[in-house]
User: Fold this.
Amino acid sequence: MNFERITIDLNQMAGVPCIRGRRIPVATIVGLIAEGLSFEEVLEEHPDLEREDIVQALKFAAESLFERQLPLIKEPA
Assistant:
């Protein structure tokens, strides 16, 4: 999947994935949506964003989870 709106620059925000080279981390956008904000509310809070930025942030987060095994259940010793 191509994420042309997601940028990773080691010299900006310590390499945290951000939206279009801005200092708005993908995690911030995903967190706002998770807290229950609508797309419109996120766009009001961050006027530099576009609707497609939010969509791609969510897709990027979902794709990132597919790439890793998460320790959801710890096996008893």
About this structure: Residues 3 and 53 are 10 Å apart (CA to CA). The helical segments are 26-34, 39-45, 51-66. The radius of gyration is 14 Å.
